[in-house]
Design goal:
The protein contains nine helices and nine strands. It has about 240 residues and is an alpha/beta fold.
C-alpha cells in the first residue's frame, strides 16, 4: 500500500475531507465508555483527528512514513494523539487495549483475515469495529464527467466507488452482528483542493508521469466549470459499518 501512495502525502493532506460528524458520534456512543481507539491505516490523520477532537485517545496506526509525518505535524501537540508506525495486520498494540478499531477509506488495502485477527486481539471484550467510506453519488453530473476524465488518463481507474464496493464484499468475512448506517455528506472543495483530491488517489497520475500536466489542467478546468462562488460541491454520503469480530 505504501508504494501506491508514494509522493501523494501532500495531495492527500491538501485534498481529502473528513467524514460526517454523525458517524463519529455514532461510533463514540457505541464504544465502551472511556476506552481508546485504534485508527488503522490512519494516513494523514484525517479521521483520527475527528476522534481526538471528540475526546477519544486515538492510536494512529500507519505504515507509510510520508503519510504518518503529515499526521504528526498536525497532531503531535495533542495529548490524545498516539502515532504508531505499523500495519493494520500487525499494529504492535497490547492485547485488549482499545474499545474501538476504525478504518476510514482504508479497509480495501488490508489483508482481511489478518485485520480481523488483529481486531480480535487488541479489542476489549465489548469493543467494536467501525468501517467508514465516503461514497460518491453517480447522479451528480460532475462525478460523471470526472469518471470519464479518469478513464482517459488513469489506467488503473475503475470507478469512484471501487473502494466501497470492495469493502462491502469483505465485511461479512470480517464482522459479525454488523449494521450499515448512512449519512448524507456532500463534499466541498476549492478549485485547488479539488485538484489535490484528484491527485491523492492511488490510481492517479503523479509528477513525472506522461500526460500528468495535461491531466492536472483538465481536472482544474472541470473544477472551474462547476464552481459556484469559488466552491465545488460534490454529491456524497458516508457509509459506516459497525460490528464485532
Amino acid at each position: 500500500m505504501a508504494l501506491l501512495f508514494d509522493q501523494k502525502a501532500d495531495a492527500y493532506a491538501a485534498g481529502r475531507t473528513g467524514y460526517a460528524p454523525e458517524a463519529v458520534e455514532k461510533l463514540i456512543s457505541m464504544m465502551p465508555e472511556g476506552s481508546a481507539a485504534a485508527d488503522m491505516g490512519s494516513g494523514t490523520g484525517l479521521f483520527s483527528e475527528q476522534l481526538i477532537r471528540a475526546g477519544v485517545l486515538t492510536f494512529c496506526v500507519e505504515p507509510d512514513d510520508g503519510m504518518r509525518a503529515k499526521a504528526e505535524a498536525r497532531l503531535n501537540g495533542d495529548p490524545l494523539f498516539r502515532s504508531v508506525a505499523a500495519s493494520a495486520e500487525e499494529s504492535s498494540l497490547p492485547d485488549g487495549s482499545v474499545g474501538l478499531v476504525t478504518a476510514a477509506a482504508a479497509l480495501h488495502w488490508f489483508d482481511p483475515e489478518g485485520f480481523r485477527r488483529e481486531c480480535a486481539r487488541i479489542l476489549m471484550p465489548d469493543g467494536i469495529v467501525g468501517i467508514l467510506n465516503n461514497v460518491r453519488d453517480y447522479d451528480d453530473p460532475l462525478t460523471k464527467e470526472q469518471h470519464a476524465l479518469c478513464l482517459r488518463y488513469c489506467t488503473s481507474f475503475t470507478s469512484f466507488t471501487h473502494g466501497f464496493d470492495k469493502v462491502s464484499k469483505r465485511i461479512p468475512s470480517i464482522l459479525r452482528e454488523y449494521e450499515l448506517f448512512e449519512y448524507p455528506f456532500p463534499l466541498e472543495y476549492s478549485v485547488e483542493t479539488f485538484v489535490s483530491r484528484g491527485l491523492s488517489s492511488s490510481y492517479s497520475l503523479k509528477q513525472g508521469d506522461p500526460q500528468f500536466e495535461e491531466y492536472v489542467r483538465e481536472l482544474k478546468a472541470l473544477a472551474e466549470k462547476y464552481a459556484e462562488n469559488g466552491v465545488i460541491r460534490v454529491g456524497n454520503k458516508v457509509a459506516l459499518f459497525i460490528g464485532k469480530v
